[in-house]
Amino acid sequence: MKHIITKADILLFVLLIAVAVSGIILMSGTEEAGATAVVRVSGEVVKRVDLGVDQSFWVGNVELQVKDGAIAFIESNCPGKECIHAGWLKTPGSSAACLPNHVSVTIEGKSEDTNEVDTVAE
Amino acid sequence: MRSSLSTRYIAVLGALLALSLGLAVVESMLGALVPIPIPGVKLGLANIISMFILAYFSLPAALSVGVLRTLLASLFSGGLSMFLYSAPGAVFSILFMAAAMRLIKPLSLVGISMIGACVHNLSQVCVAVLITGEVHLFYYAFILIAVGAVSGAITGIVASTTFTRAAGALRLSKRTSHAPLTNQGGIL
Fold it and tell me: Distance (Å) from the C-alpha of residue A77 to the closest C-alpha of chain B?
């Protein structure tokens, strides 16, 4: 057997691996930006926000802002301003709340394992 | 395609179909021996038979054996859902390999086999997306392209080292430039 593997074969192999690797890198980048924030008032979901889109909006007496894939309370009429001090939320599972206004925000990841509760203690 | 439906033609294709089913069984046994963490990853040994038929017979013959193989394999083990996943993979990989054999002359059987393995894996991802409706499964496609390149290369090397001898034994003559036969006498 003289030429089992030709130059074209090697070129194709390198090309396929390059496509695969760049694809995996690209997709893992968008996966993070695809997280959403869930805004609840008294436990009821009132809004789902894509963290990939920068915006700000009011929910009752508080204002929330989305910037660079993170969300934070930026304005509130509550006395302690605990919600604003909670800062920017980014990672799936993290949350902040403005208790006087009954508003809470939770970050949900795209994959199933990050937005589900492991166990519920009763 | 001379003597399109001679007895010999049918007999040889039937033997190749049986061989491809046998290879599929061997492959599932290999999978049990060496567990691979990524689901759906396999060597694709049956693809060697598809390439052999493409090289020494014809595209319709390769397609019929490929579809019959997936049908019989799913009857034996997985059922209808397995057929839905594997049949499009077999059909598309055979079509792409036939086109590559004709159009991309610099590729040897190893390159053809890589194309076949990647197309097979990609069509399975497409079927999975169509069935489940989960678009983010396409993420998986890139991993399977890398897997296809590696497994295709391995089966391609096996193919090019065995085809000459197999064709000699079957007294088949070269049909395409990808059949590495150099006028060898029959062994049988």
Answer: 40
